[in-house]
Each structure stands twice: as structure tokens, then as C-alpha cells.
TrEMBL record:
The gene is trxB. GO terms for molecular function: ferredoxin-NADP+ reductase activity; flavin adenine dinucleotide binding; NADP binding. It catalyses: 2 reduced [2Fe-2S]-[ferredoxin] + NADP(+) + H(+) = 2 oxidized [2Fe-2S]-[ferredoxin] + NADPH. Residues 4-280 form the FAD/NAD(P)-binding domain. This is Ferredoxin--NADP reductase. Binds 1 FAD per subunit.
Amino acid sequence: MNKFDLAIIGGGPVGLFATQFAQLHNLNTITFEALNRFGGQVEWLFPNKEIKDIPSYESLSGKDLIKKLKTPLTNTLQPNYRVETIKKEDGYFFINDEYQAKTILITTGLGAFHPKTLPIKVTKTEEKFINYFMTDPTNYKNQKVAVLGGGDTALDWALQLAPMVNSLTLIHRRPQFRGLESSLNQLKCLSNVKISTPYLPKGLQIKDNLLELTLNKIGSNEQSKQSFDNIFVAYGFKSDNRILRNWGLELSGRGIQVDRTMATNIPGIYAIGDSVEYEGRVPMIALGFGEAQIAITNIIAKLFPDKKITLHSTSI
Ligand SMILES: Cc1cc2nc3c(=O)[nH]c(=O)nc-3n(C[C@H](O)[C@H](O)[C@H](O)COP(=O)(O)OP(=O)(O)OC[C@H]3O[C@@H](n4cnc5c(N)ncnc54)[C@H](O)[C@@H]3O)c2cc1C
């Protein structure tokens, strides 16, 4: 059985940075990611968004951030691997009865997440026109598309698609949007963008190789039909963190309870990033990076009590 100093569970931005920081301090680590690509919410929900709050970068796209985090990693990365069970025996944690690690760092974020789907029965053929994740906007060049939803994800996707597509209709069930007002104002200035509110999709069918949506106007009997090459559904995501209770972790609200060293109630298990909750915490990437440094430094001190930890070459 493979043995490691540290097993990192979750390969989002925070898990990736924790891997890099642990590698820098010579820890033998393995990082598990349930999905087939690393990067967590950044990779799956907003790869093309320009992120403006990562220190020392004026702006960088989600996919560039994940690439930069992954590039220096030489420690073991295990994609497509969902951690289900953790047991402790003889000073080691057993992960899915397959891997052994002296300590564990949980970076599972919001847990396994799935998109909220259209509340309409959809056939396999119709499914091909419906997108729940944003990939490369250039794939939709010159198309007629619709984005459904009223939050930041819907507005971000619309802003990414608009420069590529022929026309874009933003459909929301309320006249007001929950997303950033500045994003909405940007969209309103674009000549190929139409905003349709308050409309709710009630049915769909394929007609002339396009997806025809039937839209009901909320509060009236008015119905309209519109056809698209592709539609993007941004109704949010359902996340499932139930597994944390099975691992015996104490929760605080929806997240794991940690102390100031990022230790959980189980000795040897630490948690950081969006998986934890404490007063004043905000779900931001850079904060998770700082938590990674706290957790890894404390893990090294516990694993190697005689080792002098050099955080940087010169101290004042
Ligand atoms: C639309 C949107 C825009 C955002 N914009 C910004 C922004 O501009 N700036 C900013 O700082 N933050 C932003 N955020 C927040 C940011 O994305 C999160 O704070 C960040 O992704 C948290 O990182 P994480 O690694 O803790 O968790 P996640 O990114 O949630 O990653 C957790 C990973 O763990 C994996 N996992 C879960 N359970 C298991 C398991 N049992 N076994 C193995 N793997 C598992 C998941 O598959 C996932 O890949 C935004 C969020 C959204 C939704």
C-alpha cells in the first residue's frame, strides 16, 4: 500500500496551492480529485472569467490560474478519485482502504457539486443543445445562443459568449438580476445581446436542427417561441458535503469547524478553503492560499517536531 506524509483531499485552487507549498517543504504528498480535471470551481464554473483579486496579478483568467498552480507540481496527483472513507489505524489514516497517510488536509470546497438542471423533461438528443458548464466560448462562434439565469455565473457566461456569437438572449424569470450590476450594464451596451425578462422556459423541441424554447411570461398568459443553436443553463449548483459527517468531523454551519492552526476535531486532520467555516470567513481563493500556509506549517511541526521549519531564507 502506498504511504504518504500527507493526503490532500480535493484538487481545487486551494488543494493545488497546498500541494505546491507542501512540496516546497519536502513533504511526500498525494492529492485526490474526484473529477477528471483539477481546478475545482474555477476550472468548472468560471474558467474564462478574468479574476482580479489574486495578489500580484492585475488580472488573470481562471484557466490560467489553474495552469500556473499545476505547472510546478511534481508530487503525486490522483484525478478521478473520490475519497469515500477515512479510517485511522496504527498511526496512519487509511483512505478508501487503498492509500495510507500520516496526516490529512481536507480541501473539498463545497463538496461534490452538480448543476441544477432545467425543470423540463429532456430527451438525449435535446440534451446535446443544453450546456451546464462553460468550456471554450470560441466553440460557439457565429451561433445564436441563450443564457438562462440571473446570477453572476449567467452574467459572466453571457459576457464571455457575446463577443463570439451572432446573437445572445439572456433569459431570467425576474426583471431584476442577482449578479453584478456592472456586468449587466456591460451586457446592455452590446448590440447583439437581448435581455428577456420575466420569462420561464416551459418546453422545448428540436426544429430545423435548432432547439426551440417555449417561454412563458410570468404573471400573464403570453407565450413565445425562440430557437437557438445552443443554450447555457446557469441555475446554480447543488453541493453535497454530507460525507464530512461520515468522516466524524465537527461542522460549523455548512463547513468544517477548525481552530487557528486549521486543525479539525480529529487529531491529524486539517481543513482549509471553502470546506471550512468560521466567523468572518469569506469564500475567496487568496484567503484559502493563506490558510494552506498555516495548515502545512503546523502539519510539518507535528510530523517532524525536531525539524527547524525555514519559511524563508532570512528572518528579521
Ligand atoms: C461564479 C463564481 C465566481 C467566483 N469568482 C471569484 C473571484 O473572482 N475571486 C475569488 O477569490 N474567488 C471567486 N470565487 C470563489 C472561489 O471559486 C472559491 O473560493 C474557490 O474555488 C475555493 O477553492 P477550494 O479549493 O477551497 O474549493 P473548490 O474550488 O470547491 O474545489 C474543491 C475540489 O474538491 C473536490 N472534491 C470534493 N469532494 C471530494 C472528495 N470526496 N474526493 C476527492 N475530491 C473531492 C471537488 O471536485 C473540487 O474540485 C468565485 C466562485 C464562483 C462560483
